[in-house]
């Protein structure tokens, strides 16, 4: 535990069981392991949640140690005191919560967002056989936006099967860096044919410059290639949109900066998150105001959410209660 003058910083890991296995091209999991940071002055306590992600070289223990050894006394100091990533995100969001509670105002007011309105989230279908993914899609007939996890042999058949099962749905696909360059044009043509709106990260980060040399009949969104605002310059011409996540950016502070910088470069905006509880999603709702696509379905994938969790009805997420965050 760090003691920064009158501020005390601590963190702990929590495990949240998923409603069913969550499968992407890199593997499967049955629980969400999150970290929760706390900042307190003895009267007011702020919280923030994040998900360390192995794809970015993170793990839970190292992230907890980073938080517990942090001596930043403010959110502003934090930006240079810790690198971007899940640990800084948990602490940054805890600072926002703490500052808002101490000032007696909403985080949205501190962030200069006049009103936080409900947003409609995509719902993620785990990678599976075409028939199984079609059945997943039918089971959520009340949800309007589907995000298909792809990145394996048979992706064309998966897209067609889900479209046949849900001709009414809006569709996003996420290959998680799993497509080969020689398959790219054919799979993008299928995506266009079945009415996909957006393709996330079809090629591995660092090997995606070929996207500037091919026709893109569907908008392509950078995810693993777009961590912070410093990445945006090299993505111009390769991507049409960027997926901004608090865990990648290192908190709401940098994520808001990244959103404004992305808009200035004429990227469309997707706001996403890892699989986590409502405490992780609540700050992202501020970021999601005015976004082109929202993918904040983490709480819907859990067997049980935390107390005062976000209300999500037919895919629409209602802004958080102050009892949860902000």
TrEMBL record:
Q: Which GO terms describe its molecular function?
A: metal ion binding; racemase and epimerase activity, acting on amino acids and derivatives
Provide the cofactor list for this protein: Mg(2+)
Q: Any idea which positions bind Mg(2+)?
A: 174, 200, 223
Listed transmembrane segments: 269-291
Q: Which UniProt keywords apply?
A: Isomerase, Magnesium, Membrane, Metal-binding, Transmembrane, Transmembrane helix
Which SUPFAM superfamilies does this entry report, sorted A to Z?
Answer: Enolase C-terminal domain-like (SSF51604), Enolase N-terminal domain-like (SSF54826)
Q: Which domain of life is it from?
A: Bacteria
Mandelate racemase/muconate lactonizing enzyme C-terminal domain residues: 130-221
Annotated active site residues, numbered on this chain, are 149, 245
Q: What class of enzyme is it?
A: isomerase
Which family does the similarity line name?
A: Belongs to the mandelate racemase/muconate lactonizing enzyme family.
Name of the protein in its database record: Dipeptide epimerase
Which species is this record about? Candidatus Filomicrobium marinum
